[in-house]
Amino acid sequence: MRKSLEFDVVVVGGGPAGSSAAFAASKNGSKVALIEKEKEIAQTVRTSGVTWADAIKEFEIPRSCYNPIRNYGFQSNHNEVIINDHQPRAAVLDVRKTYRWLAEKARKEGTEIFSNTTVTGVIKNDKGDVIGVKTESDQGDSNFYARIIIDASGFQSIVARLAGYATRWKKFGVGAEYEMNVQNADDTTWWLMVGSRFSPAGYAWIFPLSKNRVRIGVGIGKPDSSLDPKEKLDELIKEKRGKICDLGKMNILEYHYGLIPNEGLSRQTVYNNLILVGDSAGQANPLVLEGIRYAIRFGRVAGQVASDSIKNNNTDAQALSTYEEHWRSKIHSKIKSAHKVQQRWLSLSDQEWDRELEIIRELGVEEFLDFIKADFGLSNIIKLASHHPKLAVRQLFNLVKGASK
Ligand SMILES: Cc1cc2nc3c(=O)[nH]c(=O)nc-3n(C[C@H](O)[C@H](O)[C@H](O)COP(=O)(O)OP(=O)(O)OC[C@H]3O[C@@H](n4cnc5c(N)ncnc54)[C@H](O)[C@@H]3O)c2cc1C
Predict the structure, then answer these.
(1) Is the minimum distance from the CB of 46 to ligand 1 under 6 angstroms?
(2) pLDDT in tens, 302-322
(3) Which residue's alpha carbon is nearest to atom 37 within ligand 1?
């Protein structure tokens, strides 16, 4: 016998997008259920957790949830560059703490959290619109009915796929990472390591959480490479390749593995009674495959639009389109530009990477951060594309400028 439950909004997935959507919808007066398949929020870590100081400020993430970063290193086969800043403008998150803090914010606003509960089906009405989800848990099977469902299930896009609106991502990034105790890390500096020594179609990284704790990982683009990132990661650790050799004695604390869509903003994200947000919607910056800040920001917008639409008694795709218009106006052209740069980066030989680092060396810290964050301010790009004394820098920024039109 299936249990039947009714809510205004059902959010599927207790990651940053889902918790943020649940928070905003609850705060705006909706009765909200947040469904998460794992036993606890953030039981499994699937991300490296780098984000930016302005996003931390915007979301008011507590200081205990992150390690600030102010230096940004790049290493290629035969070159390296480090961009130093006097103030931290990036951070490595304690992912579990941050995600649990986000979920707790939603709970405090009234969201009911159903963990250890897996969405296995959708419920549709006569018109074919989604009106609920079917779940399985230790407590038994249930039907959750809602005026609006928010699919925040990450890479799985489970609701959109079960409803027949989306298929599995074909182009995506795969990352394997160890969280490790180390002897001596510089806790103010992260490193991205590029070229075939580190990753055949992507990059490797060292992200410090403290002087004695780092995340070391390898990301690989699929289907560009058939290599398993874990194999490459184990090779780098065994040989202490590149900057890893500066870390001294190391031991593994935890293994992380995850997938992130890399198809640009190709998906429709609103349907009658349904919103897609976060990785489920493909909202990720392809340059460093980061999406946590978009998940939180657009999760909040999704929750707000959902509960406003319920108040206005109209939850069709047209009514929900303000959500899609909002996020597209904020990131569509930036992500398009970032894809152009990503295509260029994926095509570079090892020698070309060595030269690319010379271009990065030319950038001021603000320019570098805007660039890597895909926060291309058009005026700055025009300036760099037309006035930078070095031709190679002008060419790189012309690429960005051209794509953002
Ligand atoms: C290796 C790697 C490294 C990354 N590094 C960074 C980084 O440094 N910085 C950054 O900003 N971004 C990074 N990202 C991307 C970032 O992790 C995602 O953009 C972000 O997690 C998206 O949040 P989300 O809430 O949409 O999805 P998720 O965080 O994936 O959350 C989805 C949730 O849905 C749950 N779920 C799935 N299916 C079901 C179901 N059937 N029923 C119930 N629950 C379900 C999952 O258990 C999960 O908790 C990285 C990604 C990878 C793969």
Answers:
(1) yes
(2) 999 999 999 999 999 999 999
(3) 153
